[in-house]
Automatic annotation (TrEMBL):
It comes from the Bacteria. Residues 24-44 are annotated as: Disordered. This is histidine kinase. Residues 96-322 form the Nitrate/nitrite sensing protein domain. Keywords: Kinase, Membrane, Phosphoprotein, Transferase, Transmembrane, Transmembrane helix. Its EC number is 2.7.13.3.
């Protein structure tokens, strides 16, 4: 092996080596593969059954979408009805609390006006207010109002009992609390919904609450005025505003209330107590100039209390009507929702059943035909093609009666005439494919033999050329001429490697004979001699080892491919390092080629690793594989020829680039010539760190793919 002179770059490369990561088209950093032959795809929407299912599923989905919208509408109606019922119940409880607060407000105002006889009924009313407040503790909105507006209720009561509270301020306190409760009343907002009767009932309940508050406020307000005996300050103006609010609310109530609700309201205002209260109101209207009022506050209070209680009864009746209407709407919505669900389910089940029957009647014969087609594609046709390709006989004479086996008649499976035509076409396709395979096998065999013959001729010529150059080198004394002969020698060495790569791919190249084992450093130097830019190769650390003779040429060839790969894909100023070490634990000698170039993606490394561990047919690899993957195949074929245990791994170089590791098992290593040779010196720390990184990478590769790592 010649390792001692430079050569010029090889301008013309064989197409099999290429210019990829290992030459065009032959790069180990490129990948590719073929779909596994005979693999039956999983059924999906691309199948006949799937497409029939799609055709049926689309209208079913549209039907279910329409039904879903209808069900959603019914569900919303049901939810609205239930929400309204709950809101009406809460509103009635709030109105019960408001009713008692209104009574306490009036009695407190009368007490502050000087009517001591109100003290006893005021005490009983306060107890009812406290009971109502405790019943509203579970309502967060009402509890918030209590905390913000009624937290001073105990102080107001105490001040009223002592007679130190201001009449106007006390009245304002109670009125603010009542207004705050009205603000959180669910029916106080604008009533909405599709049902007009329910909407009007909520509006009537809201307006009646406003009217009742005006009546109760007037009762408490005039209670204090009558106790004082006259209007003072702005009291008369406040009185007229309260009266106007009541009139407006009652007018709006009559517009939305039903006839029975209006009749109940008129009945409440037609009682003797209501008429007596009206008389007191007229007397108060005549005292606008501040003239004395001769009215009994107790009588006024009793009459107005009866009117307020009657209005409260009307309010409860309207609330019951609204709640009953919400109950009816909820019940109707439940029935409609159930009807929609049952109808939609029955329709979907019916359509699905019809679709299943139609699909089965169509797909059953197609399934039988597909099974036959898969049997042809996965068993019969590949077996016949493999027999044709592997036989040295004339391919046209290899067709057997089994190869011409007829496919079953699709009409026997219940299929239509069109399916029978497909079956006949399938049979014709099978015959045509067999004939084409026979012709292609012959053509492939001829092509491979021609290329292999050409490679052997080139190999023989290169060997003769190397012998001639060697003789000329021994005879030449001129240094300049000798340098040129060295260049020719190096160029011929690289040409020999390219020719051998072609024969390796064709599977017809026996290894170069080697008489005796060679030292590991000599093998590495031989590999370096077969690359163009050998000056950029740094043989860093190669621990002593001897490689058996039959493996020397293949190891040198494989290393040359890896080294040239690193040189081609590294910056011109970067060195490619070669390290070699022996691992006694695994009885393995590893040689690492480290570059600092462009690196490879994880996917590319995985595909390259798969090709490194493959052992496909040389003939098939040469003729059918894409040219950009031939470099992978050269490395993989050489590693496979070295036998079990020989592996090639790829790793990322720290700092950028790619590192390739060739692991040689102990059976390829020869014992040392002189057992007394001292052991190698201790490894430098940097080399030990690099070797540990390689070992860790190998362990990770074996953990990810134990079968592939050991192939």
């Amino acid at each position: 092996m010649r390792v001692w002179m430079p050569v010029r770059p090889l301008r013309g490369r064989l197409a099999a080596i290429g210019k990829g990561r290992f030459g065009k088209g032959g790069s180990v950093r490129r990948h590719g593969g073929r779909t596994t032959p005979g693999r039956r795809p999983m059924p999906g929407w691309r199948s006949i059954r799937g497409r029939v299912a799609v055709v049926i599923t689309v209208p079913i989905c549209l039907l279910l979408a329409v039904a879903g919208l209808a069900v959603h509408g019914r569900a919303e109606a049901l939810g609205d009805a239930r929400t309204t019922r709950a809101e009406v119940g809460l509103s009635l409880r709030i109105q019960a609390l408001v009713h008692q607060l209104q009574r306490e407000r009036g009695l407190t105002n009368g007490l502050l006006g000087g009517e001591e006889e109100f003290r006893s009924p005021l005490s009983a009313t306060r107890k009812r207010v406290d009971t109502a407040l405790r019943g509203m503790r579970s309502e967060s909105a009402v509890e918030d109002v209590v905390q913000r507006h009624l937290r001073r209720l105990a102080g107001i009561r105490a001040a009223a009992d002592r007679g130190t509270a201001g009449q106007a301020a006390t009245l304002t306190f109670y009125t603010s609390a009542v207004n705050a409760l009205y603000a959180v009343d669910p029916v106080a907002e604008t009533a909405t919904g599709a049902d007009r009767q329910l909407r009007d009932g909520l509006a009537a309940l809201r307006e009646l609450a406003a009217a009742k508050e005006s009546v109760a406020l007037e009762r408490g307000f005039l209670n204090g005025v009558f106790a004082q005996g006259a209007f003072h300050g702005r009291q008369y103006i406040d009185f007229t505003e309260v009266r106007a609010t009541r009139v407006a609310a009652l007018t709006r109530f009559r517009q939305v209330a039903t006839a029975s609700q209006r009749a109940a309201l008129e009945k409440a205002f037609a009682t003797e107590d209501a008429e007596r209260a009206t008389a007191y109101e007229k007397q108060a209207e005549g005292a606008a100039d501040g003239s004395p009022l001769r009215a009994d506050a107790r009588t006024w209070w009793d009459a107005m209390t009866v009117l307020v209680d009657d209005l409260y009864a009307v309010q409860q009746s309207v609330g019951d009507d609204v709640r009953n209407r919400a109950d009816r709407l909820s019940h109707d919505a439940e029935l409609a929702l159930a009807a929609y669900l049952v109808t939609g389910t029955l329709i979907a089940a019916l359509v699905a059943g019809l679709a299943a029957v139609a699909s089965r009647s169509l797909t059953r014969p197609l399934r039988g035909l597909a099974d036959t087609a898969h049997d042809v594609a996965r068993r019969r046709l590949p077996a016949a093609v493999a027999r044709i390709q592997q036989s040295p006989q004339d391919s046209a004479q290899l067709l057997t009666p089994e190869d011409a086996q007829d496919t079953p008649d699709a009409r026997l499976l219940g299929g239509a005439a069109e399916i029978a035509e497909v079956a006949a076409s399938l049979q014709q396709v099978e015959h045509t494919a067999l004939q084409l395979a026979a012709q292609q096998a012959g053509l492939r065999r001829n092509t491979t033999e021609s290329l292999a013959n050409l490679g052997r001729r080139n190999q023989s010529l290169v060997r003769r050329q190397l012998s001639l150059i060697t003789r000329l080198e021994r005879q030449e004394l001129d240094p300049d001429a000798l340098a040129e002969l060295f260049e020719l020698d190096h160029l011929a060495t690289r040409m020999r490697r390219n020719a051998e790569s072609l024969l390796v791919l064709a599977g017809q190249n026996p290894p170069r004979p080697t008489a005796a084992p060679a030292d590991g450093l000599e093998v590495v130097q031989s590999a370096v001699a077969e690359v163009e830019q050998y000056r950029r190769v740094l043989i860093a650390t190669v621990e002593p080892v001897r490689v058996r003779g039959h493996a020397v040429a293949d190891v040198a060839h494989l290393l040359a491919e890896l080294i040239e790969n690193g040189l081609n894909f590294s910056p011109p100023a970067e060195l490619v390092e070669v390290h070699g070490w022996y691992d006694a634990k695994d009885d393995t000698y590893s040689i690492a080629v480290v570059d600092h170039g462009i690196g490879m993606s994880e996917a590319d490394k995985a595909r390259a690793g798969a090709l490194f561990s493959g052992s496909g047919s040389g003939e098939e690899a040469l003729v059918t594989a894409p040219t950009r993957f031939l470099g992978h195949l050269v490395v993989g074929r050489l590693a496979h020829r070295l036998g079990e245990g020989a592996q090639v791994h790829l790793f990322d170089t720290p700092g950028g680039g790619l590192s390739a590791l060739l692991a040689l098992p102990g059976r390829l290593l020869a014992p040392a010539e002189d057992p007394s040779v001292p052991p190698p010196p201790a490894r430098p720390a940097a080399v030990s760190s690099l070797l540990n990184g390689f070992r860790a990478g190998v362990a990770r590769a074996e953990a990810r793919n134990p079968q592939g790592a050991s192939s």
